[in-house]
Amino acid sequence: MIDAPAASPRTPDVAPTVARLRDVHVVFGLRPALCGVDVDVRAGEVLAVAGPNGAGKSTLLEVLAGTRVPTGGTRSTGAATAFVPQRAAVPDSLPITVRDVVTLGAWGRLGPWRRLDATARAAVEEALGRMGVADLARKPYASLSGGQRQRALLAQGLARGADLLLLDEPTTGLDRASGDAIRVAVRDEAGRGVAVVCVSHDPVVLAEADRVLHLEDGRVATR
Ligand SMILES: Nc1ncnc2c1ncn2[C@@H]1O[C@H](COP(=O)(O)OP(=O)(O)OP(=O)(O)O)[C@@H](O)[C@H]1O
Questions:
Q1: How many Å lie between the centroid of ligand 1 and the Cα of residue 3?
Q2: Ligand 1 pocket, mutate which of 26, 37, 58 (most atoms under 8 A from CB)
Q3: pTM for this entry
Q4: Which domain holds residue 73?
Q5: pLDDT tens for residues 80-117?
Q6: 56 and 101 share one domain
Q7: Do residues 168 and 72 share a domain?
Q8: Is there a domain that residue 87 lies in?
């Protein structure tokens, strides 16, 4: 946690800031993807990130995740972070089971010997159960439907036991049951005090978020 936050309409103003971006710029070649973005993400809130294609939403998630170093500005966070990519980001050619996918999330909890201890194994089982994919644990990930894949990927994020959960379009193109399961899990995580940042075009996700950050041409338009 960083320090005391500013007030927010739907999150308690005592909630600590889990991640902070200040004056963040990202430039690809000559093309700016983010221009002077300031963001505070607070414990227990769901912050949705919306905006047209190419607005910089995925780039913002990458900066929050620490996987993209900004061209300018600062990122401050000490949070354990889980990043849940779009399901299309996992190639079908990978010979991994659903349990393997979820177990990868638990690796972030491990010490230097990288051995799955009882706590990590329990986190994997809990995440499989919460996302309704325990029965599919031995199946190849590539054999799953789109909704099942997205639930497995979110289970991977849950198994991390993160303070900051970053989601890229988690409900896009899903059947209703899978979309509902994902939105329930997101809300549950926020209820446990996890800060959730969710890039989405889904109007239901945006309506249910505590705050919506709109990006346009790499800039924050409104909050
Ligand atoms: N690795 C990269 N190399 C070059 N340009 C990139 C790279 N990643 C993103 N961009 C460019 O940066 C801009 C912002 O891209 P980004 O993917 O963050 O937008 P987005 O809002 O997530 O879009 P979408 O909704 O289509 O996923 C776009 O102009 C994109 O083409």
A1: 31
A2: 58
A3: 0.90
A4: 1-79+163-223
A5: 999 998 877 777 888 899 999 999 988 877 766 777 88
A6: no
A7: yes
A8: no
